Amino acid sequence: MKNILITGANGMIGNLILAYCLQRTDVNKVTIITRKKTGIHHPKLYEVLHENFLDYSAITEELKNKDICFFCIGVYTGQVPKDEFRRITVDVTAAFATALKTNSPAVSFCFLSGQGADLTEKSPVMFARDKGAAENILINLNFNHLAIFRPGYIYPVTRRKEPNLMYQLSRLLYKPVLSKLYPNIGLTSEQLAKAMVYIGFNGGDKMIYENREIRQLQLAN
């Protein structure tokens, strides 16, 4: 029986992963670290309300004895200033992953990254640099098992308020046009969440999964 830890459970992918984990018979407990309650009530769910995502010293007990972690904290490019984007993408990842590795050294870590992440950290694109920096931090922590997921466009299966005009257009065009002309340009939120859960529980033969490989995982399983 597995003890699961999820961050970003109020977000699109984290919320789906939470639902899938709660449904599994091989799960003992699902702990989520969040700033606000999800409103979900389930005997396996344990919510930890926490404000400072750069300091976990107050909740070290909640980081112990975890088998699998799904890290789904993120922010859209342009949604916050450049410095804030890096703080959320890089600094929060570093602080959380370091604290978790210290308290659950054998944990498997599943990280929601993004297409184009640059491990050289030299890309002129801020998103690519910062996602690459976050990935490098995780790689250097030497987790027992690390799986990095780099999706392209994520089509929200459940309707939501889109963050900007580009996402509004992408949602409108993805299923009838883009997914048919360019099948590997993106994937659905359910495809991504199911793939992350599958690899988290079953392992895989690689560390980094690009959009095409994530889709193939879901097509095969």
Descriptors:
globular; two-stranded parallel sheet; Rossmann fold; 41% helix; 221 residues; alpha/beta; 9 strands
Itemize the secondary structure elements and their pairings.
Elements: E1 2-7, H1 12-23, E2 27-34, E3 45-49, E4 68-71, H2 82-103, E5 108-112, H3 126-140, E6 145-150, E7 153-155, H4 165-181, E8 186-188, H5 189-202, E9 208-210, H6 211-220
Parallel strand pairs: 1-2, 1-4, 2-3, 4-5, 5-6, 6-9, 7-8
Describe the structure.
It contains six helices and nine strands. It has 221 residues and is α/β, with parallel strands linked by helices. α1 packs across α5. α1 (12-23) links the parallel β1 (2-7) and β2. The chain has one domain (2-220): NAD(P)-binding Rossmann-like Domain (Rossmann fold), CATH 3.40.50. Strands 3-2-1-4-5-6-9 form a seven-stranded parallel beta sheet, with helices on both faces. A two-stranded parallel ribbon has the order 7-8. 41% of the residues lie in helices and 19% in strands. The protein is globular. The model has no long low-confidence stretch (mean pLDDT 88).
Give the gist of this structure.
The protein is an alpha/beta fold and 221 residues long. Helices cover 41% and strands 19% of the residues.
Order of helices and strands: EHEEEHEHEEHEHEH
C-alpha Rg (nearest Å): 17 Å
Mean pLDDT: 88
Strand content: 15-25%
Helix content: 40-55%
Query: What name is given to the CATH topology?
Result: Rossmann fold
**CATH class categorisation:** Alpha Beta
Helical run tally: 6
* Alpha-carbon distance between the two ends: 22 Å
Superfamily at the CATH H level?
NAD(P)-binding Rossmann-like Domain
